[in-house]
């Protein structure tokens, strides 16, 4: 009986750490380290206060082709704006269309709630970590 209880506790402990694991492997998108703070009180980012809205940020060191931050209603998702299934090129920066990100190279659409694209696509959008502290959304890798 003690072994079963210890096994259950160990399983819960290990699975509790699962949220911190991100699989960011994508051969098309380099893995750069960065940290960007976004103030949702600023007019440029105020739409992020409302569920279903996203913003493309292309400032300095934000991701490879910029980052897309999206308010899911229960938190924020942040993704690289580089098309996940295209080599980096002049057309590989995605744009936002409602609750989707669109890659102009192949017109593929990716859901900003999940980061997933259509059927048959090898890679989802590259996800970054987020932290919220008041009106500040920190995105980092």
Chart the SSEs and their pairings.
Elements: H1 2-16, E1 35-39, E2 54-57, E3 67-71, E4 76-80, E5 95-97, E6 100-102, E7 109-111, E8 127-133, E9 136-140
Antiparallel strand pairs: 1-9, 2-3, 3-4, 4-8, 5-6, 6-7, 8-9
Low-confidence stretches: 3-20
* Overall spatial form: globular
Strand arrangement across the biggest beta sheet: 1-9-8-4-3-2
From the alpha carbons, calculate the radius of gyration and give it in angstroms. 17 Å
- Helix run count: 1
Strand content: 25-35%
CATH architectural group? 3-layer Sandwich
Helix content: 10-25%
Overall strand count: 9
CATH topology (level 3) name: Rieske Iron-sulfur Protein
CATH homolog superfamily: Rieske [2Fe-2S] iron-sulphur domain
Instruction: Supply the number of structural domains.
Output: 1
SSE order, one letter for each helix or strand: HEEEEEEEEE
What's the gist of this structure?
This protein has 141 residues and is mainly beta. Helix content is 11%, strand content 28%. It is globular.
In words, what does this structure look like?
This protein has one helix at 2-16, and strands at 35-39, 54-57, 67-71, 76-80, 95-97, 100-102, 109-111, 127-133, 136-140. The chain is globular. The protein has a single domain (24-140), classed as Rieske Iron-sulfur Protein. It is 11% helix and 28% strand. The chain has one helix and nine strands; from the N terminus they run αβββββββββ.
């Amino acid at each position: 009986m003690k072994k079963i209880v210890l096994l259950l506790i160990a399983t819960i402990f290990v699975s509790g750490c699962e949220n911190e694991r991100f699989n960011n492997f994508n051969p098309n998108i380099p893995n750069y380290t960065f940290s960007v703070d976004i103030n949702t009180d600023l007019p440029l980012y105020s739409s992020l206060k409302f569920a279903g809205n996203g913003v493309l940020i292309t400032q300095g060191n934000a991701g490879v082709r910029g980052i897309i931050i999206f308010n899911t209603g229960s938190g924020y998702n942040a993704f690289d704006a580089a098309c996940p299934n295209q080599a980096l090129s002049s057309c590989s920066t995605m744009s936002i269309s409602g609750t989707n990100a669109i890659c102009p190279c192949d017109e593929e659409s990716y859901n900003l709630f999940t980061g997933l694209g259509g059927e048959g696509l090898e890679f989802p959008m590259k996800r970054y970590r987020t932290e919220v502290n008041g009106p500040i959304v920190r995105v980092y890798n």
